[in-house]
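Example record

The entry below shows one chain as it appears in the dataset: sequence first, then structure tokens.
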Amino acid sequence: MDKITRQIYRHKSIRLKHYDYSQPGSYFVTICARNREPLFGKINDGEMVLSAMGKIVKTCIMDIPAHYPNVALDKFVIMPNHVHAIIVLWGENSRGTACRAPTEEKFGQPKKYSISTIIRSLKSTSTKRINILIHTSGHSIWQRNYYEHVIRNENELNKIRQYIINNPPKWEYDRENRNGIPVDEKKRFWTKYFNEFASESM
């Protein structure tokens, strides 16, 4: 099983020591709904049908570049109980190379365009709008944490894009689908899928 498949199934946050998450690069992030509840819609014949909450989340995601001029969205998908997205940070002064390898830099306080700042803003804005929708105050929508992976190269980027594109039609194999098939079978499926994709891309 390659590291991309392991990352998708473990959903373990692997924040690199001393890595500056505001530096230019591409980042694969996963944000889960509170208690992995299916708040954002349902899968119907392999396609995601957004609920009213899901539509709010989509609007907030698509608004990210408007609030952060040096941030771009690559692929993203909203699933019934989680969101996957590739977020690209271009740097404060220019639009440089998207896939830049990590460098050893001291990690300081959250910066203006850091991944943590962007995710915090997305969660906060969408939560406020959803609370207005459902006529509540302070109702929690998201899990406290989120998961991220620094995309190291073009091959990883393409694999993750394919995973995001295939998330809705392969919902039964998604680790967040509590009504899906056994986890071991899901792991075998995605390992085989990524191996086949890598072969076709050569």
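Notes for this example: The chain has six helices and six strands. Residues 94-110 have pLDDT under 50 and may be disordered.
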